[in-house]
Each structure stands twice: as C-alpha cells, then as structure tokens.
Amino acid sequence: MFKLGLTVSILVSTVFGYFINQNPINPATSKTDCLSKKDLITGKVIYTSYDEPAINEGGPAKLYKAMSNVKLDSIPNGATTQFTISFLVDVDGHIYRERVVKDEVGKVGEQMLKIAKSFKWTPAMCNGKKVATITTLSTRICLL
Question: Most CB within 10 Å of its CB: which of 17, 38, 51, 117?
Fold first, then answer.
C-alpha cells in the first residue's frame, strides 16, 4: 500500500483560478462582461468567466496538501497515473454535480473528489456578485 507523500510529485496541469474551460477576467478592469450559460441538467446559470475564481477554505495549498495523503493501493512504485475531477461550486458555496471525469487507476479520482468536497468553498465573484462556476482539477501523480 502506498501513501502519497513527499517523495511523490503532484503536477497540477492548471493553476487555481485558471481551470480547464474557465477564463478569469483581469481584475484591473472596472466592469467585466461575465459570460454564462444555462446548465442543461440542473437548469442553473453557470458562469464561464468571472473576476475571482471559486476557492476552497485555506486556499489551493491546503487542498493539495490534503490530496497528498490519499492512499494508493493499486499503483506500483515508479508508475504514474492521471485523474480529472469536476464539480459545480454554487453561489452558496455548496458543491453539486461532482464527478470523476478521468481516472486511470480505480478509486483515486473518487478519493480526490471526496477530499475536495470536504472543504468549505467560497463561490466565484463577478462584478461583486457571487456566481456559480464549474471547477475542474486535473492532476498527474508520479510515484518515485
């Protein structure tokens, strides 16, 4: 049984706030034309551009530190795996529509999603208003 630790590198493919399919607007602009679309499953309005991204309590470093403690029973030493998780952070900070998009080794993505859901989230902001956004995390795990 392996446990993700200091000898394991987690390479995050994107930086917090610049997730896949999300394009934060430069906060220096006085008024942002926030782009939104209606989610076909929930009927909620979801923003695809915003001034400030949704963020977990404690920030990205705390989230990734928690993710580094995941148990990796089925990954052999020296192997790599990739997972992608996605979820909607609503205007109230609750997580909805969570899903594992990609998981090369079973259960790793599910564990990472459970960790992300364990945090309190602050919703994204656009023009001073809380807005719902989709957050996607894609990570490669390398066991050294």
Answer: 51
Of 72, 96, 93, 92, the closest CA to residue 83 belongs to: 72
CA triple 102-55-116, angle to 5 deg: 40
Alpha helices, H only, the chain: 59-67, 108-117
**Coil, strand or helix: which one is 58?**
coil
| pTM for the model | 0.72
Token pair, residue 122, equals 């602050």
Q: Per DSSP, what are the bridge partners of residue 102?
A: 84
User: What CA–CA distances, in Å, run from 12 to 20, 41, 57, 67, 82?
Assistant: 11, 28, 19, 12, 10
